[in-house]
Amino acid sequence: MQALVKNNTIEAYCFPGGVIQALLREIGAGRPGLFTHVGLGSFVDPRNGGGKSNECTTDELVELIEIDGETKLRYRPFKVDYAILRGTYADPRGNVSLEEEAIDMDSYSMALAAHNSGGQSVRTGTRCAGSWRD
What we know:
Elements: H1 2-6, H2 17-29, E1 34-36, E2 62-67, E3 70-75, E4 82-90, E5 96-97, H3 107-116, E6 120-128
Parallel strand pairs: 4-6
Antiparallel strand pairs: 1-3, 2-3, 4-5
C-alpha cells in the first residue's frame, strides 16, 4: 500500500485516529460530517494540505468553518465501500460476537457506515455459532 501511495497510484489521506473513529460514527448516523478543533494548525488543516498524502489525492475532505466565532474543521463524510470486521463467534445470519477480542475498535460504527453508504460488511469469526444448515 505504501508503494501505491508513494507512486501516486492511489489516493490516500492521513487523519488522526480519533477523528477517523468519530467520523465513521457520523457517517453511520447519516450526519453531515465531524465538526471539531482537532487538527487545526496540523497537517490535516486545509491550509497545510488537508491530510492528503500525495499529489493524486484531490478531493477536499477537510474544510475550515466558523461556529460561534471559533474556527473549526469539518471532516466531510465519505463513502465506505467495505468494513472488514473480526469477531470471536460468527453465525449463519451474520451476527458476530466480540467477547474474546482485545478491543472492538468501533466495529458497529464501521459496519453501520458501510451499510449506510451502500457498502458491505465482511465479517470473520474464529469459531462458528449455531448451525449452517438452518
